[in-house]
């Protein structure tokens, strides 16, 4: 019993889209931070929310 492939499509409900964005943003920022630390690299992410508000993440590994 494996997982089924989900068809990726745009969420029409703005509240649902914003909620999904917030949850996904938290996860991707955590992964970027881990990658920055584990691989000793600098990472820059620029995310734009469904409402148009930008988020900038700069992951710098402390020396």
Strand content: 15-25%
- Rough outline: flat
The value of Rg in angstroms is 15 Å
| Count of runs of 4 or more consecutive helical residues | 1
CATH superfamily: Transcription factor, MADS-box
Strand order of the largest sheet: 1-2
Please report the distance between the alpha carbons of the first and last residues: 46 Å
**Strand segment tally:** 2
What is the CATH T-level topology?
Answer: SRF-like
Q: Biggest β-sheet: count, sense, barrel?
A: 2 strands, antiparallel
Number of domains: 1
Query: Which percent range fits the helix content?
Result: 40-55%
CATH 2nd-level architecture: 3-Layer(aba) Sandwich
Unreliable residue runs: none
CATH class: Alpha Beta
| Class by alpha and beta content | alpha+beta
Q: What's the overall average pLDDT, rounded?
A: 89
List keywords for this structure.
63 residues; alpha+beta; SRF-like; two-stranded antiparallel ribbon; 1 helix; 2 strands; 41% helix
Topology at a glance:
Blueprint: H1 14-39, E1 43-48, E2 54-59
Antiparallel strand pairs: 1-2
Subcellular location: Nucleus
GO molecular function: DNA binding; protein dimerization activity
Keywords: DNA-binding, Nucleus, Transcription, Transcription regulation
